[in-house]
Amino acid sequence: MASNPNTALYQNLSLCVYIGNTTTIENDTLLDYCSQFGTVITHSFNKEKFCDFHIIEFADLKSLESFLKTNDHKINAIKLDIKFYKNILTNNDALNIERKFFIGPILHKNDITQIMVFYKKQDSTVYYQLSKQNEQEYLLLQFANRQTVSMILEQQKIPVLNEHRKCHIYKPTHPKQFVNKIISMKNKHNQIHIHGLTNNITDIMLIDYFHKRVPVIACHILLNNPKCAVMEFNDEKTVRKILETSNIYLQGTNLVLSKASRSLASLLSSSTDDSDDENIKTTVISQPILNSLQTQNLTSVPTTHVMSQDIIQQLLLAMFNPIQPVNRIEPEYISPPETNESGWMSPPRTIVSDYPTIEPVPVRLPSHPRATTMSISMDPEYRPETSDVDIKPFNKVPSNNILQFVEQFENELDQIKNEYLSKFSKDRTTIEREINQLINEERQTLNRLDRYLNDRRKRVEKRHNKKRRHSSPSSSD
């Protein structure tokens, strides 16, 4: 059957299959084999170092069932380890990859013999495959059980090769780690959108941040909108728990969270910059007004549902006189006491008043997201008065953000721990040195004392012998 391997992302985890024991199998060979059972829409990825599996996505359920019904899958006499990929995420299925590890690099053929002789003492059934990783050769060893592998990794039982060269052990990439690279394209129910990203924030940072709190399925930063990321979780309950905190603080930036209203497929295929997930819309201003705003260090006016676009334009016209709306008749100039007044709902009109001429005072809008309103009466004798009314910005970050506090507390705790360990290591070295010095001094003192006692004993014996010789002649007399 025909296959279309051009899809960049896995679309449906329910149609994905885990295939283990593939470190020596080429992608094209595996694709040709799997295509016998049905259409494969996604089959390859940037293979990580020390990876011994592939993830294959079929186009429909019929192809998937046809593949899973086959009991024995072999390619080039290599038996494949087949699992339904979604079961691996929720169950603790035993995988062959958990009984393996990589060791190397292998520089000579004699290295293979020495390594196998060493590990056959641990497990006589161990066997190996030669695997190439980044232009270097490694051995992929497989043991009879996981306990042996755990014991070797914990105790770091590594053979020493010729020329006193020591190899390195690497655990294979686990398929549960690969789940962070797969995100549903059409299912939006378990996804949220994260707005306000910067160039310093990566998908790995987001995964690490959320994974400390809840299990994370996947994360994807939109290519057509790098300031927005899509994060997927296990279920809607987890999504609701995350959305209880509408803001997070990461890398010195406040990020806004919202429930996904569109699937990732529709976001990627969208050719417009309009987002249905934003609750705050930005008014589009015509070019003459935009130029005037730029001279006042203004860019755009965030609005809520209370203020329409027409009202905003009328407000701008009132503040930045003499800019007039396009396709409108210029009012005639009338000397005082006649003045021109721009209303909210009507074009500029000429009125006669007994009040002296009052020039409109431009009001500078704040740069941060805060709406400015004007209290205007429709009474012609009423003089407009301006007043700034602060409206809370969308998803304002609370000062007592508990997540920010917890993150800061964890960082300080880690810093204290590191300082304590560093100080303890330094103090321990000093104490050991002082103890060894004290032991040496005591040993030297004991040696001197021993020599002194030996000398004293010899002198006493010598004196005693001398007295005895003198006493013997006198007794004979």
From TrEMBL:
Residues 16-83, 191-258 form the RRM domain. Gene3D superfamilies: 3.30.70.330. Residues 399-455 form a coiled coil. Residues 456-477 are annotated as: Disordered. One of its GO terms (molecular function) is RNA binding. The keyword Coiled coil applies. Keywords: Coiled coil. This is RRM domain-containing protein. It comes from Adineta steineri.
